[in-house]
Every structure is written in C-alpha cells, then in structure tokens.
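Q: A reviewer asked whether we had any structural model of the full assembly, not just the individual parts. We don't, so I'm hoping you can provide one. Inputs are below.
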Amino acid sequence: MTEQVKDGMVTPAVPSALGSGRQATPFVRPTFAGLRPTPPGVAIPRKPDTPPHPAAQRDPTRFAPRIAQRRLIASGFAALCLFATLIGVVVLAALLFDIFRDGAGKLSWSMLTGFPSRFADRAGIGPALAGSAWVLFLTTMLAFPLGVGTAIWLEEYAPNNRWRRLIEMNIANLAGVPSIVYGILGLALFVRVLSLGRSLMAAALTLALLILPVIIIASQEAIKAVPRTIRLGAYALGATRWETIKHQILPMAMPGIMTGTILALSRAIGEAAPVILVGALGFVAFIPTNPSDQYTVLPFQIFNWVSRPQTAFHEVAAAASIVLLVLLLSMSAVAIWLRNKYTRRS
Amino acid sequence: MGATCSMRGRVPSWCGSGAAWWRWVACVLLSPPLVACGPGSASYTVSVDGSSTVYPITEAMAEEFGIASTEKVNVTIATSGTGGGFKAFCAGERDISNASRHIKQGEQALCTQNGVDFVEFNIAIDGLTVAVNPTNTFVKCLTVAELEQIWRPGSTVRTWSDVRPEWPDEPIRLYGAGTNSGTFDYFTEAIMGRVGAIRDDFSASEDDNVLVQGVEGDRNALGFFGYAYYAENASRLKSVAVDPGTGCVSPTPASIQSGTYAPLARPLLIYVSRKSMTRSVVRDFVRFYLEHAIQYVPETGYVPLPAEVYKKHLATLAQFDSTGAATQAAP
Amino acid sequence: MTAPRAPLPTPAHDSRSWGEIGLKRRHASERRIRYLLVGASAVSILTTIGIVAVLVFESIGFFAEVSPWEFLTGTRWTPLFESKSFGVLPLLMGSLLVAGGAALVALPIGLASAIYLSEYARDGVRRVLKPVLEVLAGIPTVVYGYFALLYVTPLLRTVWPDADIFNAASACIVMGIMIVPMVSSLSEDAMSAVPRALREGAYALGATRFEVATRTVVPAALSGIIASFLLAISRAIGETMIVTIAAGATPNMTMNPLRSVQTMTAYIAQTSMGELPHGTVEYRTIFAVGLTLFFVTLLVNIVSGVVLRRYREVYE
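A: Here is a predicted structure for the entire assembly that you could use as a starting point for your response.
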C-alpha cells in the first residue's frame, strides 16, 4: 500500500555492544571424540582413482595429521586466552579492592547527605548526588526523545540514499568525538551564546549531545532487529506508518532501546571532562532545586578532592568513588538484565 | 534579566497546559526565561570564581559563614582559574573573584569597558616552597642567583656539582608547577624576572600532589610548589632555605608573614565588585572573611597577613553603606 | 503517503466509511510526525556543524597570529613560556604514544578475551564473564585516573626507579585496561555473527579449536575486529581524565614511555582550568588543539567505517 518496507535483515553495520549480532540458536561445540590418531596399520580410506597429491609424494610428512602436536597447541592457546580474560578480571578486582580499602572507612549516612567542607571528616556529597540526579533527569528528558526520534526517522522514513548514509556516518563519527570537545561546544554555545551560565541546564544540554549518538545507534539496532513480518502484517491491516511504529515496532524494540539508553546515561553520569568546562562548582552549600541553579556533580567532586594535598581527602574521594561505582553498576545491571531477559525470549 | 528571573518557579503561560503533557514538558525545558536566570540573582547568593590556589581559603570562609549566619545564605565557589575568574567577574557575572596574582592591564580594561568597578583586598600570603628529598643532606640553602642559574631557559646545569663544586656529581631532577598555574607565573617572574622564562626539560604537573610524589620518591629531586602542599607532607620532604642576598631564610609561617622569606612569598587576593557591595549579604561575607582570616587561614596551609592589614581593609569596607557608594574614595 | 487509489471496502465491525474514520486526518498527523522526526534528526547534523563552527571560529583568530605551517610542523610546544613556540607535534606525539601504548595493552588482551568468550567458554561462564568485563567499561574515568595516580605510578616506580613521576606507561596501562572491554565486546559480537556452518565445516575437516578460531572465525570476522581496534584507539586518543589526573604537563617529542608527556586532551583540560586571561592567543590554543584532536579522531573513525563497509562479509 505504501512505499517499500525497510529491509529487516540483521547485519552488524556498526558494531554494537548489545549482542544483536548473536545467532538465534546456541552453537553447540563438537567434542574431540572423533579426532583420534589413526591406529598404526590401518589404511586411511581414499577414493580408488585419486592419485596422491604431488606435494605429498615429494614430502610425505607435509600432510601428516600431527594430531598430538596440534592438540597441545590448542590447549596452550586456550590457557592463554583464559589468562588474558582473567587479567581484566584481576585488575578490576585490584581496583575495587584498593578503592574499598581506602574509602570504606569514610562511608556513612552523614557523608552521603552532608555538604562539602574543608575538613575531610566532615565533607559530604549531598549536593553532588543531587546534582547528578538532576543531570540524569534532564539529560534523559532531552536525549531520549531526540535519539529515538532520529533512529525512527533513519530506519523507517528515510530513503536509502546517499544522504542517509552521510547522516549515519556523521552520527557514527560523533560517537567517537572526545567528550572534551563536547565540553568546548557546550561552553561556547550553551554557556556563552545562549546565556545559560553555569546552570544545570547547560550541563544537561552538553551531556545530552554527548550521548545522543550512542542512543541513536543503539535504537537503530533495536529497531532493525524487529522482524519484517510484523511491519508487513500491520501495513496489510491498513495501519499508517506512524501507527505501525507506535503500536507495533516501538514496543518490540523498547527493551533494546532502553538498554542502550541506560548504558548511555551511565556514561553521562560518569563524565567529568565536559562538566569541568561547562562550569560545575567546587563548593556548593545547597541542594539545587531548579534547572537554572548552579550545581556540582559526583565525578567533579571526586576530581576536586583527589587534587587536595591532604590524604584524608583522598580517602573521602575513594568513598565518593564507591558511591559512584555503586550507582553506575546498578544502572549497568539493570541494562544487562533487560538485555538478557528479552534476548532469550526472541 | 532581573525581571524575568522573578518568574522562577512559575511556568510561562504560553506553554499551555492540560492534555498535551509532552508539549508542556518540552516548553518548560526550553523556555528561556526559566532557564536563563543568571547566578547571583537571588538576594542571598554570593557567587565566587577564580583561582584554585585561593579556593581553599574562600571555601573555609564560606563554610564558617554559612554556619555562623542566622539567615539563609548561599556562597558558591567555582575554580576556573584566575584568568577565567576575571573574565566572568569583568562581565558582571560574579560577585567576587579569587586571584593568586594582581589583575592584569588587559583584564582591568575589560572591567572598565563593562562598567565593573572593583575593590581589591589582600587576604593571605602563599610562600612558594623549594623542596628536596629528605635523604638529601647537602642542600640547605640556595641563593636566588643559584635558583636562577638552575631554572633559567637554556640552562646548562645538569648535575648538583654544576651549581656548587662541593656537591655530588649526581644529575638534578627538576619538578615544577605546570605552565597553566599562577604558581608557575609567580615563580618565573620572581626568580627569572620574566613570566614564563624557564628551561624546557623539567617535569611539570598541574597537580601539586604529583610533584610531591615526585620529589618524595627521587633522591636527586628539586621541586617547587605551594606552601600548603609542603606543610601537609612536611615529614616526607625537606624544604630549602632561600637567600635573597640578606641571608638564608626558611619558609615558615613566621618568616612568610613578616616578609623576610623573599622573593617567593606571593600575595593572595580577592576582588569584589562595587555593584555587589550594595547587597548586604556580600558585605557581610567580606566582613566575615576579613575578621576571621587570622583564625582560619593557617588551617588551610597558607599564611595570614599581619592584623593591621585586615583592619585597614575593614575600614575600607565600612565606607560602603547600603547605597553602595563609597562615602570616600577607597585607598 | 497518498490516499488509496481504489476505494477500500468498509471494515466489517464499523459501518462508517474509510473517509469517516478519518484517513485524511491520520495522514495529516502523519505529516506532522514526519516533520518532528526530521527535526529530531537535524539535531545530530547541527551538532557537528556546531562543533566545527565553534572550533574553526576561534581557531581563525589563532591562525591569524600563528602560521598554520608552524603549528603543524613545529616540534616545540611552549605557548606559555617566555619564548613562545606553537608547534603541535609534541602534543600529537604524546596522544599517539599514549594511545599506541594503550592499544598495545588492550588489543591482544581484548582479542584473546573475545576468542575465549566466543569459542571456548561455556554458556554459563560467558554469561558471567561478559558482564564482568563490561563493568570495566562502566567505571568512570575519574576513578581510573585516581587509581593510576595513587597505585599504578608508585608501583611502576618500584620496578623502574628511573621513570619520571608521570610516565606514559602508567597511563597506557590504565587506559589499556579501560578499553579492553570495548575491544572484547565488539570483537565477540563480530565473531558471533560468523555463521555456524563455517565453524562446523572446519571442525568436520579435522581442525582443532585453535585452528578454527584463528584460521576460520577471526578472518571471517576480521572487518568487525579491526573496526573494534580502530574504535578503541580513537577512544584512547580522546580520553581526558586519566591523563589529566595522573599526567604530567610536559610536552615532549619522545617515543620513550618512561618519560613525561602531555596529550592534546590533557592540554585542553588543564589550560581551560588554568590562569590564562581569556581572548588571548594562548587561550585560543585550546581551540586550535581541539580542532586538531577533532580531525584526528574523525580520520580514525572514517578509516574504521571504510574498513567495516569494504571488507564486511554479509551472511544471509
């Protein structure tokens, strides 16, 4: 009824961390039961009219199976790969252990809700947590509609021509631009030109631009993964394009979109570089109540405390890092749970 | 900007209401009057920006002022650096500017251009400390001439014996503040006579903690950084006395305050705009600052000025009555 | 979106005609939705234009005073010393050295992890290990910087007492660990997209798991793996906080990882927090260096896209 349906084939056009390139059915690895060395004296059956390969005639050992040697190499390689994987795990454990050892002593309710102070044992992260919460809320409100809208337009509406490829290449490139360049943009555009000053809104706008490409790419992958048949069925029943999207495609793609959005937001919360440029405060004695208030965020507070001479402040910074890590890990856990739950189903 | 800022907390009427909730959210988020309120618009906010060296002092004052004050008060402090602080200050966006150096001519011109008049207050002294590793037993005092010889651009000093022949023939490892800090500017100007005149091959860092680590771990090290970082790590460093020509003087609070530790004692200042002085909360904060400097400054690792200086500043402050105009010209 | 060409039958459950149901109205709101979505998509283009505009605008002021030739070919970066020199090569070399070192750490570990997760690990093990590795990616870079400053650097100095207080090696190691999950996750996705049939064919011919992995799967997934390498390198070039916290600030044209270096990103962060008066040519170096950084990452991303598109194997 309407124009051509988008091709719903799943190809890893841009690598995504969402596992969308996975095979649908699990791949069962063969065991090596069949691969035993041929017992001596047993001829290897060969088709009668096949002469031996000239290279084998020249050098009979060239095609020898050498099974034992290869199995040895295989096990050695397996051990090497396992070792490499475990390096990452071990370093992570070392990092977490060090930070916990330094910071756990300073964790307390008064530290979580208190205000910064020049005394390390009185210093708290209350305003920083509130600032991060505000930034999270505002960034979501800004980046989510824009990101999903762009993905929908690219996947469902845009004709497959060179303009669309240009836009997609542009987005893929923006995803790789360093966060500090976004900070420069935010400083020049939101703080100066739009006169937003050092407000939460400026930070939220900057971070929204930073994570927008990630949300777009993740949403595109999720929408691409919706099978063609759903679309065809909806069109066949007379739905317009937007009705198909709103009632059929988006609900099916929503878990993937949410996963990507949550991962992108957790990146936004952990970024300190653009926030430094756009103007987080060093000392904030109040909880922000309004998008135009001044603010501080947790990564910036950590950065501030790490630069102080007193080692007690390094310990408070470690405690604040623990809080930040817990926050981010819970967000990642939610995203991964979502992905696991809905990937298995499809 | 002031008139629209009073709308804070109320939604502009053109956003509509009711059914189209997403339209309302979008309008609220993007409505300029709601979001473009500048800082310091509330009568109880004091906005401060500037040097990260002066920041700990202003932070201590802000904290104690918040505790001591009976009414609601918000002191916000940012650390954009002295240059960044002046830029915002001279654009009228800040009440107070923290500075680890005097205002430069170009910045002063900007302030005049924007109609921002200010008052300058000296609030503390930082003694830049030259330090060596504690295992270094032979260096006790360095003259300014020797420091200049070691640090000047194109310097040929490579070993300790190049400075004084009786010292060992070990290579000197130099650690110094990064080029973006007031510490760097002040050190080069005081020792070499020209800002930015320094040799190419020293280990620079913007974070003085890193420099402390460097000197602490390297027995041939020689470094300079702010007094607060030395005082905090005094057991792991050894300070070097500096001889400006009149005898070796070690950096101690007493010698820094009295001015005998020269030329590496630098003034720390705050600049307050006269327009902000019309607000009583700003005047109260600056008064608190000057009255309690002697009490709180030592805790931060810097050195307070002699009491007479603060008394003079308080007298200047008293001239600003509630109309904001000085009844006499400030000295 | 045109009106249907032939009159459609009325739906069975509703006696109104299609027109009465409001097909025209639905199409009108379709148009409005379409404009909204186009508007949303325009934001991404506007962002790129904005970034380039801001960087170029300020850099023009910079290049009016410093010749582009000197900027691009000079080997001394001392904008704040008394004798000013504006050659960006030391910063560029610093960024490449740190990124290269991080790649040297991350690429072998990442690829080996990906091979293990994709070819060797049992399903249950993979379900545990993959999220654990992704946690490494989720740790904020401030925490990594703190870790590098307070633990890795002293550790390195016990092994090499000769090293500078900041050495590129310390940042390389920490940054490498940070980008391992990126390499391993993306490579593993690429390797999972290789169809079973290829692997089964190789096993049928008597290959060991090592041979299947290295001679069948990895070459088939090569474009995705190389794309993941390039993305990881571009991430390493653009990383700011680790080098700002644990870094020195000494621009140095050196390939020795035990010396102090300064990267482009660290320079931008440190300068913007510093004591410079705004509007001077020294302050505008931030934008000039930012422009260079943008072009370098743009180049790496374009190459990565080209590699992915040219050499991708599409499986039905």
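A: Points you may want to mention in the reply: Residues 45-125+268-318 of chain B form a domain with the D-Maltodextrin-Binding Protein; domain 2 fold (CATH 3.40.190.10). The CA atoms of residues 168 and 220 of chain B lie 10 Å apart.
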